[in-house]
Each structure stands twice: as structure tokens, then as C-alpha cells.
């Protein structure tokens, strides 16, 4: 383990002990400010270095601002650069002092050395001080017309910086159209590239408000421009090529000839040394040929070798990004790579993130022709020193087995794993054997023989233990020892802490009971008793359910618990094909790496989240997100409508029951005497017309009855039901908010996963909508977010709840203020709100 | 595009921060990153290269104890981020003559200057080392000497590279070199996986052609191979013209000045490997006897140098002792054994024997160590690739041409 982080270096003794050193620097800078002595520049340079190094480690040296500016009059370019760096860092915090720098920066912008002109212009644009915008326009304008390409390059990017400081100043000065002219006419490729990236950002941002900008944005994809760039693409540097390729991937050619033209022009880009260029080209190829199935297939063939080279020749980080893309392609065309499987063999020294992706690739490309080799290779990994890779490898063998027709050899291999006697290998294998048996019941004989020999003591992991227990129950007729192993496990019920295992144990012992009643009777009684006494709601409920089922009718119980099963033909895929297509559309983007389409992790208005002011007066400005949320809301409402017709009650109560409002009644032995006859649940269960009690239940159950139950549930508080279709316009929200008093105010913590999910605040809005709490406005910058929610009580009289919710994602704290029409219900609503919030991110 | 670049030491300290956009990324991001790294087991080299933090998407690469971290809030091509960081690391390491915390701290002004030119407003700009060198000269002894002699103490060249205006962006037009020579190096790495029974699972060669060109003016070079068909896939430096390659498998190019990687290639399905490594493990009641034999398998015609065998002892081994009849064996702190052989002697086959004591309760060893071999062979390109000739045009006098070849082990592993 590396030592703990040391970010707060300023407090450590080796660092300047605060003020004294800084004031010392200040003094020295002052002395040098006017000096024209021969060694002054060197002395200044040392001082500047000190200042910058303090800045770099995070010490606040902004108090030296005016002294630094005074010293900036120099011809030494390194001094200038350090000064620019310093000024860029602190100007925003000292807008008044920043004015001092304007003078010398503007002068430098007219320097005869193009390098200094460029640097000065870049620094000028990086000051980020709103009230200095007027001083920017002039130098930028002349920068765009500068005879030197370096200066024009800087100016083109400077326009974008200006746009982000003040969009109106940028548009008013007519910079976008100047950029456009430059982009079409400038001889220098880097100037063209910078114009393109600036224009893309500016027009995309403007497009929301101006139709002309939207048209201009479209024009970036027009045929003449695309060809203008395509024909020159080799002159651009590699990064500009990426940019152009990205633009072209959105271009829609008019006919097939054009598609082939573009592909011919770009084909040699596949051989480029920069991986980003190669992937960008591949994206263009794939998108262009989507409509031509056979050419699309040829494209796959063509891109295979470059992709494999990229994967095996780059750094592990690059391999990872490339492998993620390969994985996506393999999902669409598994046959493509089936003969190149050896490329995905794991190398010992690779980092595990690469190995994991490689294992997934091997699983995906396994087919009849290569399964044997792949499985042999995977078996090697099972003995790997890296335990997590060993586990993944075993899982991969299992997955291959489940997708193959000929599993003969694989089953043998899996069973050999069980003989390795390593607990994690055994554990993983057991889970797989279970799945295998569900798909290929015909193998039960071979598997059971081996599984029967495993001592349950050697299996500790809940998943593996559950699998073993499932097999014991399912195949108890074939395993002579099964009832006794189960009995043994039930005897040690208390040592088993996983509810999953306990649930499986209950089911398995039931199945076993139907097959071999005399041997299992005692175990079943003990299991049901233990289950009923369990404090876990699920375990308790299942035990009770089985118990009543047995009480009702044994054969019905058997039909419920142990019906004849059909082999599973296909296990559900975790990712829908629609989702995969979405990701494919976003080829060469982060979506591929996260294996999620971008809408699931990135918000469109990610950067645009405007600060919401304390006053609600701004709400009208915020009406946009609310309006955007509306369609989703209506959609949701429709869904709920459908459901409501059948089970209105459950639907509405659902979220409440999951909250803390409802607690499982504890088993209380002191009230045991009250029990058997008055168990109220029995009445619930008995359906009119059927005997309520089956007197022929086995003696085990009689025992159990003797134990008694007190499962009378305490009446749950009348749950607060919310109207799923609540609607409130911003105006009336604002009115209500100002009228009502705060009826509840709370502060609490949220889970870390919720904080992570908050990376896209939209997910919270969707989540809360799922709980019938609508969002009317939201905003904020990380780490603090602000949301306004509202909800309406279902039924009469309709009463609204308004919520102001402040979330701080760095401290994971949430402040909630609730105002309600009906103040008495605010407490219930608050609990409900908190419960809904607590489930966020699950 | 990229919002900010942080350089972080392997103890979690932020060495350097370079904001790229008006929209600043807070330094607390590094805190989040570091905590995340610690929850992932603290092994920095095993961290995912692309991570989603609550507020940003992070790209990170880990090089020689230094983390290069970049963040963005918008969707962008992932390789662009990763590849760019790799370039940043390469170039900084090239400028400073290595990478470590102190070097960066001593030269942070240079690093700032470099980053300033390499990226503007988050868009990668110039990453071509030759051009950067013309804008910012590296802090080497020569430039220090110069500054003493001439009294000019700037490491920034006063002229701006005109390369951006020439139609070959990697070369300015009026280069004058005192020397008149060009060197071509074939450097190949052999990657192989060998099973315990000696069978070859996979064997592949990754090769690079490195050129060091010290030619004046605007030379035009053509390089041809005797057997270009053995190349499986090639990647080119931007200077190579694609047509001549496609039609005649000729490399025709105007070289950048100085050292550069002209092309890289792969050669698949190699049948022969130069050395064999035969490990054997025999377990008996709580201990395990390990022997490793090493020898020449297919003589490459030149001596095989600096052979080293390395492996990790499995965690269930409590102690081990090794003896060898040639070379030295070291067991390092993290249970890593390193057996350096050097050259294989003529009279005997080097062998390593040792006894592994297993954890109590284990009767035999189930986890097998993987042995990694390192070696290098000077003067041979194992793939068999041969350079036929190199023609230089556009030059008043024919330059001196030098050719060299080297093969070394890349990922050469033997399973036991």
C-alpha cells in the first residue's frame, strides 16, 4: 500500500510556512521590479520559479499578483511564459488587478516575434475575466489576420475561449463568420483545424437559440466542406485528423459512389501510427456502409488486421480501449475473429483489466472450430497465480459450455476443476455446473457423481453453497447422501449468514422431502422451524409459505415447489440488442468503454447546468428542464395507467412498503402460547370453498405448530399514496412555495453509490419520477446540486408537497425542506421521500 | 475535449496541474481519484485507464511511478485521450531524460511550456517531437553550456518552426546538418507463450524500423525489402506515401530530422524460438521440487545475450531455496525470483534446482508459476525481414547509410 494521500501539502513543514515566506517573496519581487541591472533577469527567473512552484503545489500566492505584474516588463521569453502562467491562474480571482496585465499583454500581442504574439494572445484569452472582454476583441481580430500561421492558430482557438467567457461579445464581433472564412481559405492546416473545432462548439451551443446557427452547424456537414477537408486530410496533424474523421462520420453521402470515394480517400489512414486516427477511420467506414450488408462485411475484414495490431502493439491502456471496441465488433460479427483467437490469449504480465476483456473476447468468439483450443487455454488460467483471473477463466469456460452444442469435453474439464481442491475454483465451478445442469439435464449423472463427493464444509461462498444445495435438492433421488447432508446443513443453520443460502436450503429440503419423505421429514421440520424464526423477512416468508402450502395440500405443494422442469435453452442476456446497437452508433466514444450508451451516463446539459439561484424568481428561466421532463412524465403516467386497472393498490403502495414505514414483526417466543389457532394468516390464505386445514400434514409440521407462531402483523400505518400523474406548472409552484411555511426540514447522508449516480443528475430525476415525485427545476455545479420536487397525494382532497433538496456530492449530505398543503401529512411524505432517495443508484 | 491535466506522484501528491479550459476542474478531483485508487487495492498499474468519477470522466496512464491524469466532461474518442497522455508521457520523459517526481519538479517550467504547445483549449495540438524540439529546446548539458558561453539564458528558440507551413508538417525545408548520414535499425520483439510440454501456443514478432536521419535539405528516401510479404500488418509514420507501398511494397518518404519510428509491423505464426526453457515441478508431501533447464533451441546464428529468467512464486509457497550451475539467482521481496544467466556456456546446459516449502495443509502445488524469459540477440531480425536497399534522392552527395538489427524478448513466457 502506498502511503495516504498528501494533498494538503501546505500544512506540512517542508512547505513555505504560510505568510512569512510569501511576504519575503513579495519584498524581493518589489526590489527587482524596476531594476535594469545586468543580473536582474536571472534573479527574477529564480523568484518566478519559486512562486510558480508554490502555485503548483497548491499554495495560494495570489497576494503577489501586483508584484508579479510589475515584474513582467521583460524581454525574456521564459519569464514571460511563467508570468502568463501565473496571471492565467489568478486573474479570475482578482479581476481588478487583472486589468493591470492587459496593458503588457496587449503590447506583447503587437510584438514583432510571432511566438510572443501567439503566446500573449493565448494568455489574454485565458484570463477568463468577464469585464475584460472588451480588451480581447481587438487583439483577437488582428490575430485572425496575422501573417503568421502560429498566431492565427492561437487566435482561432481564442475565439472559442472568448465565446465561453461571453457568447454575445463573440457573436457581436462577427468572429464566427471570420472563422468560417479562414477555415475555407487558410493555407495552414492547423488554422483550419482550430477553426473547425471552434465553429463546431460555437454553433452547437448557439443552435439552441438561433436558427441561423443551426443552419451553419448543418453546413459544416455539407458536401463541399467535407470534401475540402477530406482531400487535404494528409496535411493535417494526427489530432486534427481525428477531429475531421469525427465530423465525416456524421456526414451522409448522397450515393454509393460517394461512399466508395470517401473510403478510398481514407483507406491509408488505417495504417496510421496513431491509434485514435485508426479508430476514427474505422468509425467512418462502419457508419458509411451500414446500409450495404456485403460491403459492411468486407469492411470488417479490412479493419481486422489494423485493430489487432493496435491491440497488441500499444501500451496496456491503449490495448484496453481497443479491446473494448473489438468486443463491440465481435458481438456483431463473432465469426470474424474466430480464427484469430490466439491474439486474445492472456499474457502473464498484462494488467488484469486487459486480461478480463480478453477473456470476454475468447468467450464471444468460441465456436465449433476453436472451442477445444480456447477451453484448453482457459483451463491453464484456472491455475493462474492471479485469483481473480482464475475465477474469470472458469466462468468463461462455463459460458462457452452454455453456448455450445458439443459440451462433452467441457463438462469433463469442469469436473476436473472440482478435483483441484482449491476453494475458489470449486466455488466457481459449482455455480457453473448448476447452470449447465439446468441447460443440459442429460449430464446430471456424470456431474452428480462428482458433486456428491464434495464436502459442503469446503464450500463457503454463498453463491457456490447455494448452487450445491440446489443440486442436492434437485437430484436428491440420485444422491444417497443428500438428505443427510441437508440435515447437517440445517443443524448448522445459525452458522450460515447468507439469506440466499438459507432460502435455497428451504427449497432444497422441500424437494428432497417430496422424493424421500421418511428420511427428510425431520430435517424439513427443523428447517421450517428455523426459517420461521428467522429475522430475515424473505427467509421467514418463504418458510411460512411452504408451511402453509404443506398444510393445505401436499400434492399441490409438490406441484408448486418441484414441478417437472424444462431445460433452459437460452439464458437471458444482460444487454438488449437495442442497447448494443445504440453503443455501436457511438463507436469510438466513451460509451464503448463503459458498455453503456451515452444517454445512460452523460447528460446533454452536463456543462450547461446553470446555477439555480437561491430565489425562486429565476424559475421561469428553468422552465426548460421541466418541460423536457414532461414527455417522460406522460409516458410514465401512461404506463402506470395500464397497471392501475389491475392492481392499483399495490402499485401505489409499492414504494411505501419498501420504506422503513413497514417493519417485519419479530418472532416473539413469550407469546407462543397465543398462537396456533389465532394465526390470522391462515384466514388470509384459505380460499373459500377449499378446506382451510389439512389434518394429514406430517408430524414434523405438528411439531412446528407446537412451537407456535406469533406472526400477527402490527397494523401498518395507513400508507401515503402519491398521485402518479401529478402535475403542477412552474408558476403555481412558485406561488405555493412563497405562500407555504416549511413544515419539515431535514439533513441526512446518502449512500456513496447515489453520489456516483449523481454524476448525471438526470438519473435522479428519473428515479424520483419512478416514485411519483416529479422534478420541476434543477441545477447546480458539482459538488453541489439543487433540485425542486413536487408530489401530489392521491385521493381527496388533492394536496401538494413541495420539496427543496440540496445535495452536496462531495460530503454526500442532503438537505431537504418540505412544504405541504396539508402540514399533517408532511412527516409521512418526508419519510417516503427519504426512502425513495435512499434507493437512488441501486 | 480535455479539461485539465494533472501529474500525480505514486504517493498521491499532485506534482503539476495544467488547466486547459475556462471551465476549471477542481483539484479535489485528484482526491477522489486517489481514494478510488486505494479502494481498488492500491495497485496503480492495475487501475482502469478510463474511469468515471461523479463529476468527470478520467483518463489515466501510469508510467514509472508517475500518474498522468486527464479529465473531461464531454463525450470524446477514448483513444484520443489515452493516446495523447501516452505522448505527453513519452515527450516529457524524452525531454527530461527519464521520469520521476524530482525531475519533473526541477523542470516544471519546461513541462508547463511543453503542455502549452501540445494542447490548446483541450484540443491536442503538436505532439511531433521534432517540431517541439525546435520550439523548446530540451534542458540538456549542451544548452546549459551554451547559455553560459553566449550569455543567452533562454531555452526557447527565437525562431518559430516553419514546419507548420511546409507541406510535410514533420520537416522544415531548410535543415542543415553537419553530418550526412542515415541509419536504419530493425528492432524486433518476440512474444511467445510456451506450454509446459514445450509446445508453442503462440509466437509473434512485433517489429519497428527506427530511422536516425541527419540529412540536409529535402531528401527523398526509398526503402525496399527483400521479402515484404512476410509482414502481416503495418503501421506507418505520417511521412510515408501510401501509393508506392500499396503497389510495389516500397517505403517512399521524406524523413523528419533526427530519430523517428518509420514503421511498425507484425509477423504472425513464427514456428521457431531461439531458446527453450523447461520447468519441472514435482510435489510431494508439503514440499515441491522445482528444476528449470535452459538451452539454445534454434541457433539464430548470433550469440544470445543477457538471458534472464524471472518468475513469481505462488502465494502458497512459504519459503524456497535455489541453486544453479550457472549464473546467479535472487529472490526479491515480493516473492519474485530472478535467475540471470547471461550467455549460455558452450560446455553445459544451465539448470536451476530448488525446493519450495508449501503452506501447512497443502500436500501439493496447484498454482503453477509462469516463467518469463528475457534475452537479446544483436545483429539478427528473427522474423527474417531483410532490407534490400535504401535509395536517397534529392541530395548533392550520397550520404553514409548504416543498417543494424536487434531482436529481444518481449513477452516471452513459459508455463509450468
Please provide a written account of the structure.
The complex is a heterodimer of chains A (842) and B (416). With 842 residues, chain A is mainly α. Among the domains of chain A are: 455-565; 730-839, 2-Layer Sandwich (TATA-Binding Protein), CATH 3.30.310. Chain A is built from 39 helices and five strands. A five-stranded antiparallel β-sheet of chain A has the order 1-5-4-3-2, with helices on both faces. In chain A, helix 14 packs parallel to helix 16 (275-288). Chain B is α+β, with helices and mostly antiparallel strands and 416 residues long. Helix content of chain B is 17%, strand content 42%. Chain B starts with a strand and ends with a strand. Chain B has three domains: 4-163, Beta-Lactamase; 181-271 and 382-415, Mu homology domain, subdomain B (Immunoglobulin-like), CATH 2.60.40; 275-378, Immunoglobulin-like, CATH 2.60.40.1170. In chain B, a hairpin with a 2-residue loop joins strand 6 and strand 7. A nine-stranded mixed β-sheet of chain B has the order 11-13-9-8-23-21-16-19-18, with no helix packed on it. Chain B has a five-stranded antiparallel β-sheet with strand order 2-1-5-4-3. The chains are: A mainly alpha (842), B alpha+beta (416). The interface between A and B is large, with 121 and 105 residues. Chain B: This is MHD domain-containing protein. Chain B: Keywords: Membrane, Protein transport, Transport.
The gyration radius over C-alpha positions of chain B equals 25 Å
Oligomer: heterodimer
- The helix count of chain A comes to 39
Q: How would you characterize the largest beta sheet of chain A?
A: 5 strands, antiparallel
Shape of chain B: flat
Residue runs with pLDDT of under 50 for 5 or more positions of chain A: 1-16, 603-717
Percent of residues in helices of chain A comes to: 55-70%
Strand content of chain A: under 5%
Give the overall shape of chain A.
globular
SSE order of chain B in H/E notation? EEHEEEHHHEEHHEEEEHEEEEEEEEEEEE
Largest sheet of chain B: 9 strands, mixed
Helix/sheet category of chain B: alpha+beta
Q: Estimate nothing, just give the exact number of structural domains of chain B.
A: 3
Give the spatial strand order of the biggest sheet of chain A.
1-5-4-3-2
CATH fold-level label of the largest domain in chain B: Beta-Lactamase
Mean pLDDT of chain A: 76
Evaluate the radius of gyration of chain A.
35 Å
What is the CA-CA span between the terminal residues of chain B?
47 Å
Q: Class of the largest domain in chain B in CATH?
A: Alpha Beta
Amino acid at each position: 500500500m502506498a502511503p495516504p494521500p498528501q494533498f494538503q501539502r501546505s500544512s506540512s513543514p517542508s512547505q513555505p510556512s504560510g505568510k512569512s515566506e510569501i511576504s519575503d517573496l513579495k519584498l524581493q519581487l518589489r526590489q527587482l521590479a524596476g531594476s535594469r541591472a545586468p543580473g536582474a533577469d536571472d534573479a527574477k527567473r529564480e523568484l518566478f520559479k519559486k512562486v510558480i512552484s508554490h502555485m503548483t503545489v497548491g499554495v495560494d500566492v495570489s497576494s503577489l499578483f501586483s508584484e508579479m505584474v510589475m515584474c513582467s516588463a521583460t524581454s525574456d521569453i521564459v519569464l514571460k511564459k511563467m508570468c502568463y502562467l501565473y496571471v492565467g491562474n489568478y486573474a479570475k480571482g482578482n479581476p481588478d488587478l487583472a486589468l493591470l496585465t492587459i496593458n503588457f499583454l496587449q503590447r506583447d500581442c503587437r510584438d514583432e516575434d510571432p511566438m510572443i504574439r501567439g503566446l500573449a494572445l493565448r494568455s489574454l484569452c485565458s484570463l477568463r475575466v468577464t469585464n475584460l472582454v472588451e480588451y480581447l476583441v481587438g487583439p483577437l481580430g488582428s490575430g485572425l489576420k496575422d501573417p503568421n500561421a502560429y498566431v492565427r492558430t492561437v487566435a482561432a482557438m481564442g475565439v472559442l475561449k472568448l465565446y465561453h467567457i461571453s457568447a454575445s461579445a463573440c457573436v457581436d464581433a462577427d468572429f464566427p463568420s471570420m472563422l468560417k472564412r479562414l477555415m475555407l481559405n487558410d493555407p495552414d492546416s492547423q488554422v483550419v483545424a482550430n477553426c473547425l473545432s471552434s465553429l463546431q462548439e460555437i454553433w452547437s451551443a448557439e443552435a439552441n437559440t438561433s436558427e441561423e446557427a443551426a443552419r451553419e452547424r448543418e453546413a459544416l456537414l455539407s458536401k463541399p466542406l467535407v470534401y475540402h477537408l477530406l482531400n487535404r486530410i494528409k496535411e493535417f496533424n494526427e489530432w486534427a485528423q481525428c477531429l475531421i474523421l469525427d465530423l465525416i462520420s456524421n456526414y451522409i453521402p448522397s450515393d454509393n459512389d460517394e461512399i466508395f470515394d470517401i473510403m478510398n480517400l481514407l483507406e491509408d489512414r488505417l495504417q496510421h501510427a496513431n491509434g485514435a486516427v485508426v479508430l476514427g477511420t474505422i468509425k467512418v467506414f462502419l457508419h458509411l456502409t451500414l446500409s450495404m450488408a456485403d460491403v459492411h462485411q468486407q469492411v470488417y475484414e479490412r479493419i481486422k488486421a489494423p485493430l489487432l495490431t493496435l491491440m497488441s502493439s500499444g501500451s496496456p491502456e491503449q490495448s484496453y480501449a481497443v479491446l473494448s471496441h473489438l468486443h463491440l465488433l465481435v458481438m456483431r460479427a463473432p465469426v470474424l475473429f474466430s480464427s484469430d483467437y490466439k491474439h486474445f490469449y492472456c499474457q502473464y504480465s498484462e494488467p488484469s483489466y486487459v486480461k478480463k476483456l480478453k477473456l470476454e473476447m475468447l468467450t464471444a468468439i468460441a465456436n465449433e472450430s476453436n472451442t477445444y483450443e480456447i477451453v484448453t487455454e482457459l483451463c491453464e488460467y484456472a491455475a493462474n497465480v492471479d485469483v481473480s483471473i482464475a475465477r474469470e477463466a472458469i466462468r468463461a469456460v462455463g459460458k462457452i459450455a452454455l453456448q455450445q452444442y458439443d459440451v462433452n469435453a467441457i463438462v469433463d474439464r469442469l469436473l476436473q476443476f472440482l478435483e483441484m481442491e482449491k476453494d475458489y475454483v470449486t466455488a466457481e465451478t459449482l455455480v457453473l455446473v448448476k447452470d449447465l445442469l439446468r441447460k443440459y439435464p442429460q449430464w446430471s449423472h456424470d456431474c452428480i457423481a462428482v458433486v456428491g463427493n464434495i464436502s459442503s464444509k469446503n464450500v463457503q461462498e454463498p453463491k457456490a453453497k447455494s448452487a450445491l444445495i440446489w443440486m442436492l435438492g434437485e437430484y436428491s433421488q440420485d444422491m444417497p447422501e443428500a438428505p443427510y447432508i441437508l440435515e447437517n446443513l440445517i443443524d448448522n443453520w445459525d452458522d450460515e449468514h447468507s439469506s440466499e443460502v438459507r432460502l435455497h436450503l428451504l427449497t432444497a429440503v422441500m424437494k428432497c422431502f417430496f422424493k424421500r419423505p421418511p428420511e427428510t421429514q425431520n430435517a424439513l421440520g427443523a428447517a421450517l422451524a428455523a426459517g420461521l424464526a428467522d429475522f430475515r423477512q424473505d427467509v421467514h416468508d418463504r418458510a411460512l409459505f411452504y408451511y402453509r402450502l404443506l398444510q393445505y395440500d401436499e400434492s399441490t405443494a409438490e406441484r408448486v415447489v418441484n414441478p417437472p422442469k424444462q431445460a433452459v435453452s437460452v439464458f437471458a442476456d444482460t444487454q438488449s440488442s437495442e442497447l448494443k446497437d445504440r453503443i455501436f452508433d457511438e463507436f469510438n466514444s466513451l460509451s464503448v468503454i463503459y458498455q453503456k450508451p451515452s444517454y445512460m451516463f452523460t447528460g446533454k446539459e452536463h456543462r450547461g447546468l446553470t446555477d439555480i439561484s437561491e430565489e425562486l424568481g429565476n424559475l421561469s428561466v428553468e422552465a426548460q428542464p421541466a418541460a423536457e421532463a414532461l414527455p417522460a412524465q406522460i409516458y410514465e403516467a401512461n404506463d402506470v395507467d395500464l397497471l392501475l386497472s389491475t392492481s392499483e393498490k399495490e402499485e401505489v403502495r409499492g414504494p411505501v412498503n419498501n420504506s422503513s414505514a413497514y417493519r417485519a414483526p419479530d418472532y416473539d417466543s413469550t407469546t407462543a402460547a397465543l398462537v396456533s389457532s389465532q394465526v390470522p394468516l391462515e384466514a388470509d390464505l384459505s380460499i373459500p370453498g377449499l378446506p382451510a386445514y389439512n389434518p394429514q400434514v406430517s408430524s414434523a409440521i405438528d411439531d412446528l405448530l407446537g412451537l407456535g407462531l406469533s406472526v400477527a402483523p402490527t397494523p401498518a400505518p395507513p400508507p401515503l399514496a402519491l398521485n402518479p400523474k401529478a402535475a403542477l406548472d412552474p408558476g403555481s409552484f412558485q406561488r405555493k412555495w412563497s405562500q407555504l411555511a416549511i413544515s419539515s426540514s431535514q439533513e441526512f447522508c446518502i449512500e456513496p453509490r447515489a453520489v456516483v449516480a449523481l454524476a448525471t443528475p438526470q438519473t435522479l430525476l428519473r428515479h424520483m419520477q419512478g416514485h411519483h415525485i416529479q422534478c420541476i427545476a434543477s441545477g447546480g455545479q458539482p459538488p453541489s446540486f439543487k433540485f425542486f420536487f413536487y408530489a401530489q397525494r392521491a385521493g381527496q382532497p388533492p394536496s401538494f408537497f413541495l420539496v427543496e433538496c440540496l445535495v452536496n456530492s462531495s460530503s454526500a449530505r442532503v438537505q431537504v425542506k418540505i412544504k405541504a398543503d396539508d402540514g399533517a401529512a408532511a412527516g409521512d411524505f418526508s419519510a417516503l421521500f427519504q426512502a425513495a432517495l435512499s434507493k437512488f443508484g441501486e | 475535449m480535455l479539461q485539465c491535466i494533472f501529474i500525480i506522484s505514486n504517493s498521491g501528491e499532485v506534482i503539476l496541474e495544467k488547466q486547459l479550459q475556462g471551465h476549471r476542474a477542481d483539484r479535489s478531483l485528484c482526491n477522489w481519484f486517489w481514494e478510488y485508487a486505494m479502494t481498488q487495492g492500491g495497485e496503480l498499474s492495475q487501475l482502469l485507464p478510463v474511469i468515471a468519477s461523479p463529476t468527470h470522466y478520467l483518463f489515466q496512464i501510469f508510467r514509472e511511478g508517475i500518474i498522468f491524469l486527464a479529465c473531461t466532461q464531454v463525450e470524446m474518442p477514448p483513444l484520443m485521450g489515452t493516446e495523447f497522455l501516452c505522448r505527453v508521457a513519452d515527450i516529457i520523459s524524452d525531454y527530461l531524460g527519464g521520469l520521476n517526481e524530482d525531475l519533473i519538479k526541477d523542470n516544471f517550467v519546461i513541462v508547463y511550456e511543453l503542455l502549452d504547445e501540445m494542447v490548446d483549449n483541450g484540443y491536442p495540438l503538436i505532439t511531433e517531437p521534432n517540431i517541439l524540439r525546435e520550439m523548446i529546446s530540451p534542458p540538456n548539458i549542451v544548452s546549459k553550456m551554451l547559455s553560459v558561453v553566449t550569455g543567452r539564458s533562454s531555452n526557447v528558440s527565437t525562431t518559430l518552426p516553419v514546419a507548420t507551413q511546409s507541406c510535410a508538417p514533420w520537416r522544415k525545408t531548410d535543415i542543415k546538418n553537419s553530418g550526412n548520414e542515415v541509419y536504419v535499425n530493425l528492432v524486433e520483439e518476440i512474444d511467445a507463450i510456451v506450454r509446459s510440454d514445450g509446445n508453442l501456443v503462440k509466437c509473434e514478432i512485433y517489429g519497428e524500423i527506427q530511422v536516425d536521419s541527419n540529412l540536409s535539405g529535402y531528401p527523398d528516401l526509398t526503402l525496399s525489402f527483400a521479402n515484404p510479404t512476410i509482414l502481416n500488418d503495418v503501421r506507418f509514420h505520417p511521412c510515408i506515401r501510401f501509393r508506392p507501398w500499396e503497389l510495389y511494397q516500397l517505403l517512399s518518404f521524406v524523413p523528419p530530422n533526427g530519430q523517428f519510428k518509420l514503421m511498425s509491423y507484425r509477423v504472425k505464426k513464427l514456428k521457431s524460438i531461439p531458446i527453450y526453457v523447461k520447468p519441472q515441478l514435482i510435489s510431494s508431501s508439503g514440499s515441491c521440487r522445482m528444476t528449470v533447464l535452459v538451452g539454445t533451441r534454434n541457433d539464430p546464428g548470433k550469440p544470445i545475450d543477457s538471458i534472464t529468467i524471472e518468475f513469481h512464486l505462488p502465494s502458497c509457497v512459504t519459503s524456497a531455496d535455489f541453486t544453479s550451475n550457472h549464473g546467479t539467482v535472487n529472490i526479491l521481496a515480493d516473492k519474485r525470483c530472478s535467475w540471470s544467466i547471461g550467455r549460455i556456456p558452450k560446455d553445459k546446459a544451465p539448470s536451476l534446482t530448488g525446493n519450495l516449502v508449501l503452506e501447512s495443509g497443502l500436500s501439493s502445488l496447484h498454482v503453477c508459476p509462469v516463467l518469463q524469459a528475457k534475452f537479446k540477440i544483436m545483429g539478427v531480425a528473427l522474423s527474417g525481414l531483410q532490407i534490400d536497399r535504401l535509395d536517397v534522392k534529392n541530395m548533392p552527395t550520397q550520404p553514409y547509410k548504416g543498417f543494424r538489427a536487434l531482436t529481444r524478448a518481449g513477452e516471452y513466457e513459459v508455463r509450468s
